[in-house]
Amino acid sequence: MSKNLIDLAVEELAPLLENKSISPVELTKEVIEHADHTEPQINAYMDIYREDAEKSAKEAEKEILNGKYRGMYHGIPMALKDNLYFKDKVTTMSSKIHKDFVSNYDATVVAKLREAGAVFTGKLSMHEYAWGITNNNPHYGAVRNPWDLDKIPGGSSGGSGAAVAAGSSVASLGTDTAGSIRIPASACGIVGLKPTHGLVSKYGCYPLAWSLDHIGPMTKTVKDAAGLLEVIAGYDKNDPTSANVPKENYLSKITGDVKDLVIGVNEDFFFNEVDSDIDKLVRAGIQSLVDQGAKVETVKIPTLQYAEWAELVTSLSEASAIHDTDLKKRPEDFGDDIRMLFELGQLPSAVDYLQAQQVRRQLKQDFQKAFEKVDVLISPTLPVAPNTIGEDLVDLNGKQVDLIDNIIRFTGPANLTGIPGLSVPCGFKGNLPIGLQIMGPAFSEALLLNTGYALEQTNPLQGKKPNLLIRA
């Protein structure tokens, strides 16, 4: 059975751990050995915590044997994105400048996972300072997509996406400022949830853009994401943007029943300039929900035409403010791509930034109006398939278009408005998985997860796995 452990989701492993059919020590050993096996190909880890993981696994085993099972993530080996602080551990942000930075405290999400009994196997690579979508890192090398090693895994949480897809981390956390959870989730064929802004504390996470940043689950299944969100959600006085809302049991609300669910489709923006194969897959996914009793309504969201500009001005300005001192003192220590972005961030004026915030306000109102008519909005997560590592252009129906401009088009609006967005697999284009995005009103995570689960039950990945999961 041990050969199959790396292939199992948390929802499958948790009962085996609870009833003592397997041990956290056995599981952790399998995951780390598999990480060793896959790292030469995918390069997902920044650091593997072998001794710490073994110690934590033994502690989890002892607790479970003594009847002190803490819940779904007790004894689950997982690595996290390397912008989340671990006390007394190096957190690099996959950068040169912070390569020796050591925090003296745990990020709130790390502390909550420790309390839940998770076993930390290490830190995962990311696009430098989370400011990019390829995870082609100039300092630590490119992370590769487990489905096709020549392709990008998406970013900035590319290490998290690749590790979960390859089985070298059972689950993970990513951060999302313009799509950095959902982009790699789509590219790597896993589930990625950007929660409502404020639902999950960002305390102890190195920021990219204060008002756009989120932390959320990246997992093999929807139920894994629901269980992980239950662990990390909740008010935190240390985060000034934290929302004081009641905690929910997301798992208990996943039934797969979508009868009478009203799905909103916005053709003008979310289905405009989309790869034809991706368009067909997403519409087929919507139809599969209609076949289960859902309904579809077309909605207009006029301010979406300005969303890309507002997202760009906001993220550029805030990110450049954060890195202003280092940009002036040691610009050569940034990778070429993000140094250019930080320099561009010096260009928008105060007027530009404030106008972008007015667009955000209007966009929120437009989404709220749409959600008076529909329960969720569904779109492609990405309008294009992942491209080859090192290339700046990507194919869109026979045209070569800029990768960055296109790949964040459909994910950015949820960051601007703060509404939740979930990416779930909906099929394949060639050998690469494709994601479908589900968005809803603020704090509607349970509804999104249930909708994603209904789609997941149609088996869109048809049992296919990356070759790295098939071990001799």
TrEMBL record:
SUPFAM superfamilies xrefs: Amidase signature (AS) enzymes
Q: Where is the Amidase domain?
A: 26-449
Which InterPro entries does the record associate with it? Amidase, Amidase_CS, Amidase_dom, AS_sf
A Pfam family of the record is Amidase
Q: Does the keyword Ligase apply?
A: yes
- Ligase as a keyword? yes
Q: What class of enzyme is it?
A: ligase
- One GO MF term: transferase activity
Keyword list, A-Z? Ligase, Transferase
Known EC number: 6.3.5.-
Recorded hits in PANTHER family, A to Z, give: GLUTAMYL-TRNA(GLN) AMIDOTRANSFERASE SUBUNIT A, MITOCHONDRIAL, TRANSAMIDASE
- Family, as annotated: Belongs to the amidase family.
Q: Which protein, by its recorded name, is this?
A: Glutamyl-tRNA(Gln) amidotransferase subunit A
What is the originating organism of this protein?
Answer: Sporosarcina pasteurii (Bacillus pasteurii)
Q: Which gene encodes it?
A: gatA_2
